[in-house]
Predict the 3D structure of the following.
Amino acid sequence: MPQFKTPDDLQHLLRHSYLAEHYDASRLAQVAELLSNPANCLVLVASKSFEESTLPIHEKWYKFNYSLERFSEARLGELRAAQAPDNGKALDLPPVNNLIATNFEILAEDQSLSTRPQLVQQWDGVADLWYKKDDKFKKPKGIVACKIYTGDLGFGTSAKAKVFSDVWKNVLEECLREFVYMADCAKLEFKVSLLRDNIDLQWTGFNDSLVNFVGETVKRIAAFRNGECREVFYQVKEQLMQEWKNHYLNQVFRLAAAEMDTYLYANDVEKSKLSELLASFDYETFKTMQSEWLRHGRMLWYAQGNLSKDQAKTIVDQAVTLLSLQPVPRDELTDVRVVDLSSLPENFHRLDFTVQDASNENSCLVAYFQYGRDLGIDGGKNNLINQLVMQYMQEPTFDQLRTKEQLGYVVFSRPRSARDILSAWFLVQSPGKCCEYIRSRLDVHFAKMRQKVRDLSDEEFRTVVGAVLTNISEKDKNLLEEFTRFWNEDFATHRYQFDR
């Protein structure tokens, strides 16, 4: 496109994301001309009805065939002369965006509300609200998050419920697309995530809009149960079928890490099993299950930022009314656990699987070591010891196995804490060595490291301690970082040890 080759055009290209609100009639006309020219168009057509003989090009990584051809002059002529039938509708401005913030004042400081998160209200076994005012970053922003814990349909324990919930989440996102776009225009964000035992909802943006934003979102989620979404359902089903199929064509180290999680979490299900269930999952079944979904449960809310306590209460009041969840005792909710390997008859376990791509020459070993449960009664001592050990192991492991022995480009080690289980894992991917060989070299490396630990000097130990101390003492750089630390480390584990 020669129109964008001058220095002035390059300046526009680099600044485009900052000039969205600047009106330039000639530039808009130029862009519109480019977009309306069929010669600049790329059309992707996917269908199950194509014959393989008509698809001569092979995609190396995802293993599918396709064709690529230019529009003929006759086709270009047809596209340029295309006529759209009059449907009686006229182009118009979009609806008024009632999510745009207008008040950007910063609330007065109040140390009694900003020192640490505090439980401010509970709703009859249905919802708990935690709140922390921001006096540190002083931005007109806020973050509201909610975890919905439910056992409806066997969520967290049933493979069929896993299929349903994944479809539900993707269909919901598609049905909320236009609303979320309107929120994005107002610099607001919403995301929904399915975790193993809860639905995680998060809203971020200008605090002046958050009460309305959260309320409008929850209203749409509640109405979604009775909405018609047949077409979207089958689109989502097709996408998930392809996604779960492609899972087994991931890079080997990514596949190995994902499969390790599948084996470690009780009641987790492999993608192949989910695909089998999804293949026979139809719209009628989806709607029947949806009618029984999110009928019972408990909600954990956390509001942080330039929000007042009353605004946070209003948000949860709205949600409790709109969702109308029936309370469930805590001990009846899904309890997802990591498999306790120490409780099994043998404390050494080996799991093998073969990648589907026979031409992939990579092998990957994941060595996982479980220390036991972290009961939270030692002030985090065992967790810190785990971090110290892995801090000491990390650089020598990478240096020995990747740099010196050159087993492969992917070599890393990490401490891990999941569902109160402390552990550590080592991952090595090699293009030329089998897993047995990788394991033998890892064992040799461990033996050398054990001897080095025995000979460790006080000065070397202080260096390792200093590195871990630097990591855990790093200050939060913005509101989102502080929120994420509290939400993932304290609320997700229900420890509420905010002053650690």
